[in-house]
Design goal:
single chain, 352 residues, alpha/beta, Aspartate Aminotransferase, domain 1, 5-stranded mixed β-sheet, 3-stranded antiparallel β-sheet, globular, binds 4'-deoxy-4'-aminopyridoxal-5'-phosphate
Length: 352
């Protein structure tokens, strides 16, 4: 090793899902929304004047902060905005998980958590899910330096009830509890209603899934003004201009169109519930997902084999070669048409 290399902060990076770009592909591998963003976003894009790009964007992201505060019925000082929820979560790890005691998160969960913990030198302890892939609430009532879990969890799609979430927050008043609600709009109960009661609760959401804007990179956190101030202090010690002009403008349009948002989410939920019936009839089993994906397994077919066969037909789903989940495929809910193509392929494959 070269001498300077011993000073390098070495990390094991997160592995994002592949982003193929083929004309006829069916992309069900990274939990994107199959429907376009709200019509107002398209309009705003057409009207966008590039002259404004000369100037730095608003470091406080105030237009989007206010739109979100109004939509979420909170005060603007309870909103923090970042470049996708990955940015918000990473910032929250750095800001709030600064103890010698380990942070706690499930052993099967969003695979970015252990990456941030390692990158930022945060001690962590992973807690096993039960045999039905459920988070065991009581395990989180132990000494810790912070807690994070998604609700619904990924990649299982299982949601916890609000009272269970509250039990964790209420019994951990000495540390910050982060609830990652990337998929909450597809059928789980948000913990936002608890942020006025618990100063130590941070709820993180994203525009990438229910608002069809993964490519725009907008995420946000909601919490007590004191938590949000700490997050902003950290952001301004790092990069004040994280949100570019376009994200701020188009983000506001996405938040404004409540009706379109509702309609898109309902379509995805309907398709998901139908997918449960169809895949169940084929012999697949899965946790009862409340997210925009299903985590499926079949008793007679290896997940890896199915993944590869699907991929050859340019139907992309996600396969994780990790212990405990390597018999499963995570399938994002697409349009009805995309899902029909998936069912047709699987029916034929299973007949073989
Ligand atoms: N949390 C969870 C549980 C996720 O699955 C994802 C998507 N990979 C994210 C956060 C991050 O999403 P984004 O950065 O696009 O907001």
């Amino acid at each position: 090793m070269r001498t300077w290399e011993s000073n390098v902060r070495k990390v094991t990076p997160y592995v994002p899902g592949e982003q193929p770009n083929k004309p006829d592909m069916i992309k069900l591998n990274t939990n994107e929304n199959p429907y376009p963003p709200a019509p107002g976003v398209r309009r705003a894009m057409k009207e966008f004047d590039p002259d404004c790009l000369r100037l730095y964007p608003d470091p406080g992201a105030s237009a989007l902060t206010e739109a979100l505060a109004e939509y979420c019925k909170v005060k603007p000082e309870q909103v923090f905005i970042g470049v996708g929820s990955d940015d918000v979560l990473a910032m929250a790890f750095l800001t709030f998980f600064n103890s010698d005691r380990p942070i706690l998160f499930p052993d099967i969960t969003y695979s970015f958590y252990p990456v941030w913990a390692e990158a930022f030198r945060i001690p962590c302890r992973t807690l096993p899910l039960d045999e039905k892939f459920r988070i065991v609430t009581d395990d989180y009532l132990q000494d810790n330096g912070g807690i994070i879990f998604p609700n619904p969890n990924a990649p299982t799609g299982l949601a916890m009830g609000l009272s269970e979430v509250e039990k964790i927050v209420q019994n951990n008043k000495d540390s910050v509890v982060i609830v990652d609600e990337a998929y909450v709009d597809f059928g789980a109960e948000s913990a936002v209603s608890l942020i006025d009661t618990y100063e130590n609760l941070l709820v993180v959401q994203t525009f990438s899934k229910s608002r069809s804007m993964a490519g725009m990179r907008i995420g946000f956190a909601l919490g007590s003004p004191v938590l949000i101030k700490y997050l902003n202090d950290f952001k301004h010690s790092f990069n004040s201009y994280t949100m570019n002009q376009t994200s701020l403008k188009y983000g506001v349009e996405a938040v404004r169109d409540q009706a379109y948002f509702q309609e898109t989410v309902e379509k995805i939920v309907r398709t998901r519930e139908h997918a449960k019936e169809v895949l169940g009839e084929m012999g697949f089993t899965f946790p009862d997902s409340k997210a925009n994906f299903l985590f499926i397994t079949h008793p007679d077919y290896e997940a890896k084999e199915l993944f590869e066969a699907l991929r050859e037909r340019e139907i992309y789903v996600r396969y994780f070669q990790s212990p405990g989940i390597d018999k499963y495929l995570r399938v994002t809910i697409g349009t009805d048409e995309q899902m029909e193509a998936l069912y047709t392929f699987l029916r034929e494959y299973i007949k073989k």
